[in-house]
Design goal:
single chain; alpha/beta; 8 helices; binds zinc ion
Length: about 300
């Protein structure tokens, strides 16, 4: 009897351990989107204890001279899972990591890459140094144990794109651009060899955009109008599926104009913030996830500016 009890205990402990372990495993599935180029696409969700913050797109390019990584995800655990995926695909070392901007889901996986160069715009490095710990604490609150042992690992290499607009790694030629519309310092990377544009959070697709640090919606729209004229065939948004049709940028511009016009009209009518938050969202955006919650957040972030401007 004792033996059976012991066995039962062992099985239960084993079972609860495996359920626990399974719960905290990101199960990243690499998607090949171009020659040598892999995407880890995040869910079209907000941060939850279920998804562990895996709501962001990260990507890597395998070149003859090593692997180039674009964004490292929301936690140390994510960064480690990403490295495992990379080493399941190639034996090449990771040689360059780029952080697109200072939002936590894009750089908190850096610890898993502390043996390599981590590049970011100089402003992004400063913003991470200033706000990184507060962001990490907030992520602990939002997604819990997935964040265990995650600490801010600062970028090591300031990327001065006036001095280094182009970088060759193996046969791949990467061109860098700075925009400001989403976070004040947004790094975009174009792989001229494959035509893939890693657009950072300047582009969201099928997932409502976020506005906590935008300088203004009109600046963001200007950035996107510029981007429309660049030469690329595939766009990797910061959040949402890859786009080869141009629709992602069109959707962004359309939504930003709608948001800007809605807030302008509401302010000129003297609506309260609560009244604006309850306004209907145009039917044409119904296919985009999280429109209501992000609209409410955007009103919270931006409406007072529109009110001031309307006086
Ligand atoms: Zn993001």
């Amino acid at each position: 009897m004792k033996k059976i009890q012991c066995l039962l205990c062992f099985l239960l402990v084993g079972l609860s351990y495996s359920v626990f372990a399974a719960k905290l495993s990101y199960l990243l599935e690499p998607q090949k989107i171009a020659d040598d180029t892999w995407l880890l696409q995040g869910k079209l969700e907000d941060f939850t204890r279920k998804n562990g913050g895996n709501i962001v797109n990260t990507a890597f390019i395998v070149t003859e001279d090593g692997v180039v990584v674009f964004d490292t995800g929301p936690s140390k655990r994510y960064g480690e899972a990403m490295r495992q995926v990379i080493s399941s695909i190639t034996d090449k070392p990771v040689v360059h990591v780029f952080n697109s901007h200072h939002h936590p889901d894009h750089f908190l996986g850096n610890q898993a890459f502390n043996d390599t160069k981590i590049w970011a715009l100089p402003e992004t490095g400063k913003l991470i140094a200033q706000h990184g710990n507060a962001f990490a604490e907030n992520m602990y609150r939002l997604v819990g144990d997935w964040m265990r042992s995650t600490e801010v690992q600062l970028p090591t290499e300031p990327l001065d794109i006036a001095a280094v607009p182009l970088m060759a790694v193996g046969k791949h030629h990467f061109r860098f651009f700075k925009m400001v519309g989403h976070s004040g310092a947004d790094l975009l990377m174009l792989d001229e060899t494959t035509g893939v544009l890693f657009a950072s959070d300047i582009v969201f697709y099928q997932r409502a955009l976020t506005t906590p640090h935008t300088p203004s919606l009109s600046v963001w729209i200007e950035n996107l109008e510029q981007l429309k004229n660049w030469q690329y065939n595939t766009i990797v948004p910061g959040h949402g599926p890859v786009d080869t049709t141009g629709l992602a940028v069109e959707q962004m511009i359309d939504y930003l104009h709608w948001l800007d016009n809605t807030l302008t009209a509401a302010a000129s009518q003297g609506l309260s913030m609560n009244e604006v938050m309850a306004l209907p969202i145009d039917e044409r955006f119904s296919g985009i996830s999280l429109t209501r919650s992000e609209f409410v957040r955007s009103v919270f972030h931006l409406y007072s500016r529109y009110e001031e401007a309307s006086f």
